[in-house]
Structures are given as structure tokens and as C-alpha cells.
Amino acid sequence: MITIMTVSELTKAVKDAKNKNLTIGLVPTMGYLHEGHASLIRQSAVDNGLTVVSCFVNPTQFAPGEDFESYPRDFTRDRKVAEKAGATVLFAPDVSEMYPENYNTFVLACGVSEVLEGLARPTHFRGVTTVLAKLFNLSRADRAYFGQKDAQQVSVVEQMVRDLNFNTAIIRMPIVREDSGLAKSSRNQYLSDTELQEATVLKKSLDLAHDLIRSGEIAAGKIKAAMTEFITQTAENARIDRIDIVDNTTLADVETITSTVLIPVAVYIGKTRLIDNIVVPV
Amino acid sequence: MITIMTVSELTKAVKDAKNKNLTIGLVPTMGYLHEGHASLIRQSAVDNGLTVVSCFVNPTQFAPGEDFESYPRDFTRDRKVAEKAGATVLFAPDVSEMYPENYNTFVLACGVSEVLEGLARPTHFRGVTTVLAKLFNLSRADRAYFGQKDAQQVSVVEQMVRDLNFNTAIIRMPIVREDSGLAKSSRNQYLSDTELQEATVLKKSLDLAHDLIRSGEIAAGKIKAAMTEFITQTAENARIDRIDIVDNTTLADVETITSTVLIPVAVYIGKTRLIDNIVVPV
Question: Residue A20, Cβ neighbours under 10 Å: how many?
């Protein structure tokens, strides 16, 4: 694995790979790699001749007051995780390399980015699509790998790729979990031992929703109420931010469940906001 | 030359060319091709193994009330002009092929798109950059050719390419003119014989500005006043929309001329809005 810090070196590495007719896989990350990222890298290494892992805490997807400054970083560890999982290039640019002086261009995938997480974070997905448009062009990736944990993010990226005719296939990979059921996340390291235990309510509440739908419940309101009751009664330090039941394709709110739904939850455990989701086929 | 109407056929033609290691040139047009377009196509045919000419009146760059519906179209003639100039692929998609149902993604090159033409047409350049991002991805062009007549458009596209790291070099080609000096334009066909004569005031006013700067005038206000007086006294049916003197790189307004300036003019001749410009190196 080689580590690259500049756009010009990445461009050269990509050109060399293209000249060798290698396919290119991209795993875009904000670093602090965990088993979820590693699963994406391993899949890319199986599918492609060159696997580029980008490691870039992207400022444009954080709003003022969010955790851009304090977002966890551990580049030494990231290098080991990426290499072990099969990355061939680790791309870790400075902010000034990605957003030089006078930078002023943005990509907006409207609609699907304006619901759910987009409501509370109106500029978040604009930052995501902008940096991914750059990374897709820089890496000239044949395939890019995303985790289902950020389900809405994958839908937003799929829309951008479809609408702007990017030549990159989006590969959506399953959520990787701790033995406790807790979805792997870079932000889990903020949690105390007690909070780590309490954080398992996210997945458990999703399992409850799954079971209710399987047993015939079609009223989204009743399911959300049951999830809310379960979370608040089970975890003292949990504060529900959002529970949604939406159409799995359009992400539009669903009242009566008649087709496959996505159920995303966002819950504060102490000061840490965690997300998880489940898709329930109907 | 082959004519292609669909995205899937274009993707296949581009893939075939890439497999043969041909470089690809793109000449994006709204059709109604004239000698200006032909000069771009000829240059692309010299530089590249495959030249894609797109012929698409792009609805997203017209505002309500502008001339999208009445914009001149003559596809039979366009095919002849493109083929004669050396195009290998003519891409002429329907609107539904470029903007299918639920299309909702946009590219914004802020700053340079918000001055000059962008002031009166606030959504125009968003449409331009969006359709060009699509065409760059679809054609996988190594080079794309633009006429200096739309000087601001070229600057906006250059910014998008630089900021989003597109792998397409932007080639800026000189304005092609009638013997009278009038810049070639698809909209010239709206003009009566009298108006065609009067339309020559655009270039003549630019020559006047050039001569004033060459003879030492550095006050932009005085130059604009002289141009205004010349145009209104020379052409009865001329109504000045804009005369600007801006920095040639940033397109920022200039009061005292100390570096190379771009002087764009927009003048109505009768009901037709014509544009022209000159770059004066300082």
C-alpha cells in the first residue's frame, strides 16, 4: 500500500492503473477506520485491481457547531487497518489540497437529501455529494463502496451518480455490528462502558419494529410509539432524536406500510448521537 | 459520423473508443450550428480520435419567459455542418433522456457565475454547469471546446472543472466573426437586414474601447461612457443591456485598468439580445 497526500500523485497512480487496464475501487472514508470500513475495503480488493481508500475528514459536510474539529483521527492506526484489509492506495489529503483558495463549486442532490438527516443538517449532504464528485473524478473509480449504516447517504449518492451520469457503480454493503448488536461507528469511541451497553437499544428497537411488521402491524405510528416506549424505558441516558418509517426507495414518509420500508433511528446516548437502521421488505 | 439519440448508445460508443485508446473531444452545443461551432469541431477533430458533438437545447439554462421554446432548431442542417467539420458522433438526446423523471441534481459554480450575465439570469449558469457535468461524464472527454464569445461561460466551466477535478481539459477558442465584424451566433438569424447592419456596433464599440486603452485611458467609467455614446449615436434600434469592464481572471468589476481586462457587452438590436467581448492585455 502506498500513502498519497496530493491530488497530482493520486492522478498519476490512477493513470498508471488505467494504463494497466486495472479496475479501480474507491472506499471513501473520514478515517478512524473500523470493521465496517474494513469490510468495504476487503470487498473492493476482491472486485478491483486497485483499491483507493480515501481518508479525509471533509469540512464541507459539517455545519458550524458540529464535531469537525473533535472528529476522531488516528492516521497511524488507519494505515494499518487499510493495508490489512487490502487497500493499495491510501489517499489522505490536507483540506487545502481538496479545497484550495477560491474553491467555490458545489453539487446538490435535491429531494432525497432534504428529508430525514437533511432536515436538521441542511448543508450536510451538499458537502457529501461535493466531496464525492471530486473523489469519483480523481479516482476514476469503476466502483465505490458505501455502508448501509448511512442508508440515506447511499441513496443521495446513488441519485447523484444516476442524475450526473458518473461512470462509477455504487456498491451498498451491509451494516457491520459489534457482538452486542451495536452498529460499528467511529463515534462509538466517545461512549463510556455504561453508554456502550445502553447504545444497544438502537438495534433492539429496530428488531422490535421488524417483529411488529412481521406479525402484521401496518400502522407506522403504532410502531414508532412502541419503539419510543422501548428505548426510553430501557436506557436512562438515551434521548431520541428521530425515528422514521419511510419508503425504502423515495425515503418519503410512510403512514401505512404497504411496501418495503427503511426505518432509520437517531438517538443520543449521553452526548453522542448514534444512528442505525433496518430495511423491512414487505 | 453516427447520430446517437440515447445515453446508452453514447456510453457504448465512448467505451469502444476508450478500448481503442482514442482520445475523445467534446463540442457541447445547443444546435443551429454556425461557423463558430464548426471551428471548435475542426479543432477537436485535429486533436482527438473521436469527436462528440452534442446538440441539445438545454432547458435548465433557460428561465421561464426566455426563448427555450423558440430557440432556433434545424437538425438536418446541423448534421451536415457537424459531419463536414469532422465530427464522428453527433449526440442529440431528447430532454427526457437527459432529465428523466425525478431528475433532481445540480452543479453550482458559485462566484464567477453570479456576476455579469449571472445577475440578470440567476439560474442560467447552474443549468450550464449541470448539463456539462453530465456531458463530461457521458463522453469521458479528454478535451472540451468552447468559444470565447461566451467568455463568462468558459470561466464558469473552467472553475467547475478545477474545483470538481474533472479529467477534461477546457480549450478556449477565439470568436468567429462575419466579414462585418459581427460575432457569429445562432440568434443572428432573428435579425432583419437593417438590424444585421446595426449589430456591427457591438464589435465597433469594443474596438473603440481597445483603442482608448491602447492610447493610455485607464478610467473604466470613461471608456464605458464613450462606448455608450458610440452605440446609441450609431444604431437607432440598439438598446444597451450591459457594458462591463472586469478583471479577465476573476471577472470582478474594474474601475482603474491596471491588468488585463475582459470587456463584455450585451446589446439588444430590436428584440434580439446579442453579446460580444474583447480581452485587452495590459
Answer: 9
Asked if B164 lies within 8 A of A103 by C-beta distance, the reply is no
Domain CATH code at residue A98: 3.40.50.620
Interchain CB distance below 8 Å, A107 and B105: yes
Q: Is residue B181 part of a domain?
A: no
- Flag whether the ipTM exceeds 0.85: yes
The answer to whether the CB atoms of A137 and B167 lie below 8 A apart is: yes
Residue recorded with cell 477546457:
B170
| Chain B residues in contact with A129 (beta carbon < 8 A) | 105
Local confidence pLDDT in tens for the 282 residues of chain B? 999 999 999 999 999 999 999 999 999 999 999 999 999 999 999 999 999 999 999 999 999 998 899 888 999 999 999 999 999 999 999 999 999 999 999 999 999 999 999 998 999 999 999 999 999 999 999 999 999 999 999 999 999 999 999 999 999 999 999 999 999 998 999 999 999 999 999 999 999 999 999 999 999 999 999 999 999 999 999 999 999 999 999 999 999 999 999 999 999 999 999 999 999 999
Among residues B119, B171, B107, B124, which one has the least CA distance to residue B143?
Answer: B171
Picking from B10, B15, B107, B131 by the largest number of A CB atoms within 10 A of its own CB, the best residue to mutate is B107
Largest CA distance in chain A: 59
Asked if A165 reaches chain B (Cβ–Cβ under 8 Å), the answer is yes
Nearest-CB residue to A163 (from B103, B110, B163):
B103
| Residues B13, B36 within the same domain | yes
Burial readout A48-80 (b: 16 or more C-beta within 10 A, e: otherwise)? bebbbbbbbbbebbbeeeeebeebeeeeeebbe
B164/A104 CB distance under 8 A: no
Q: Which of B140, B173, B206 is the last residue of a domain?
A: B173
What is the DSSP secondary-structure string of A67-95? STTTS---HHHHHHHHHHHT-SEEE---H
Do both A249 and A217 map to the same domain? yes
Q: Which of A50, A136, A44, A54 is nearest to B140 (CA)?
A: A136
Domain edge (last residue) among B150, B173, B196 = B173
| Phi and psi torsions of B143, nearest 5° | -140, 145
Say whether A107 and B102 touch across the interface (CB within 8 A): no
**Domain count for chain B:** 2
The catalytic residues of A are 37
The three cell numbers locating residue A143: 466502483
* Position B179 in a domain: no
User: Are A80 and A44 a contacting pair, CB within 8 Å?
Assistant: no
Asked if A257 has any chain B CB less than 8 Å from its own CB, the reply is no
